């Protein structure tokens, strides 16, 4: 018997793209699935569409929120409702390859989380000739410190073990839900990466998070706000990291990134320099780039 896998979908006014995605979830060749769809108080026909799909397939469980909460809170509600030993997250507007879940399950191994590559499609569902791995550096992660300066293990392509939820939940508005899930996985048995495309990742004007986060997707308005968010992120990592060694490093990073004194600046340079190869692994810099980067922290925090 294969373990039950819960697919958790967050939806909001998604009727335009929802049907092909639901069809692709139901077409998964993995034999033991439940599909938990949480609608975030849609004002279009999304809920009616979910009801119709639930009526024709008992694997689908639907939940309707009475007021709009945002996609992070919606995913958290769906995760709480999921009963599977393993969980996969689904956007409402993508299309999954039929073997996605089974291939991720086979690639998970002893790791706590696995994610795959994705292929971009446009709003009309046409392939754009580009993969996520050509835009973002996609790697395996084996240390919480690899999440210091950001990471990329996107929710739409991940499968994870329930065990990481003790670290990942509750979600926070300071960071994305998939960032916290990935960080939590590195605090347990790490993250595997499967370098094949298992999702057709749809790009359109109303993406909550698109393929290129540098284009009109910034969640800050000024350098001061950006710096504050970075410090809040480090506070979260310091609080949730269970390993005493890495926890101490995050606590010191938060302290010295939050300070503006010369001593704070020197301390953060020294800390990052000592752990530069791990902390900067996602950035994909050269040996020289890793050597030079920490000294930038004398003048700024990112």
Secondary structure topology:
Layout: E1 5-11, H1 15-26, E2 33-39, H2 46-56, E3 60-64, H3 71-81, E4 86-90, E5 95-96, H4 100-108, E6 113-121, E7 127-131, E8 158-161, H5 165-168, H6 177-186, E9 191-202, H7 223-240, H8 244-258, H9 262-274, H10 276-279, H11 287-292
Parallel strand pairs: 1-2, 1-4, 2-3, 6-9
Antiparallel strand pairs: 4-8, 5-9, 6-7, 6-8
Notes on the protein architecture:
The radius of gyration is 20 Å and the shape is elongated. Residues 213-217 have low confidence and may be disordered. The protein has 11 helices and 9 strands. Helix 8 packs antiparallel against helix 9. Strands 1, 2, 3, 4, 5, 6, 7, 8 and 9 form a 9-stranded mixed sheet that branches. The protein is α/β, with parallel strands linked by helices. It folds into 2 domains: 5-202, Spore Coat Polysaccharide Biosynthesis Protein SpsA, Chain A (Alpha-Beta Complex); 223-298, no CATH class. 40% of the residues are buried. Helix 2 (46-56) links the parallel strand 2 and strand 3.
């Amino acid at each position: 018997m294969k373990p039950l896998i819960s697919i958790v979908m967050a939806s909001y006014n998604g009727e335009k793209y929802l049907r092909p995605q639901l069809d692709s979830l139901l077409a998964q060749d993995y034999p033991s699935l439940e599909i938990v769809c949480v609608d975030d108080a849609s004002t279009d026909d999304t809920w009616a569409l979910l009801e119709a799909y639930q009526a024709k397939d008992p694997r689908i469980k639907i939940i309707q929120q009475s007021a709009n909460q945002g996609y992070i809170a919606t995913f958290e509600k769906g995760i709480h409702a999921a009963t599977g030993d393993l969980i996969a997250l689904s956007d409402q507007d993508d299309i999954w390859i039929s073997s996605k879940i089974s291939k991720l399950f086979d690639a998970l191994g002893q790791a706590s989380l696995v994610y795959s590559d994705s292929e971009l499609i446009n709003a009309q569902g046409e392939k754009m000739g580009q993969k996520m791995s050509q835009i973002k550096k996609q790697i395996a992660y084996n240390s919480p410190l690899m999440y210091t300066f950001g990471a990329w293990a996107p929710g739409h392509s991940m499968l994870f073990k329930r065990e990481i939820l003790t670290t990942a939940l509750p979600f926070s508005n300071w960071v994305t839900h998939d960032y916290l899930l990935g960080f939590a996985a590195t605090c347990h048995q790490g993250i595997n990466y499967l370098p094949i495309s298992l999702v057709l990742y749809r790009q359109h004007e109303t993406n909550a998070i698109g393929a290129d986060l540098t284009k009109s997707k910034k969640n800050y308005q000024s350098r001061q706000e950006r710096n504050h968010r970075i410090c809040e992120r480090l506070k979260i990592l310091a609080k949730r990291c269970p390993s005493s060694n890495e926890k101490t490093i995050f606590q010191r990073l938060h302290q010295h990134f939050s300070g503006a004194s010369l001593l704070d600046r020197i301390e953060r340079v020294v800390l990052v320099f000592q752990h530069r190869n791990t902390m900067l692994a996602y950035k994909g810099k050269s040996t020289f780039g890793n050597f030079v980067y920490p000294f930038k922290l004398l003048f700024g925090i990112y």
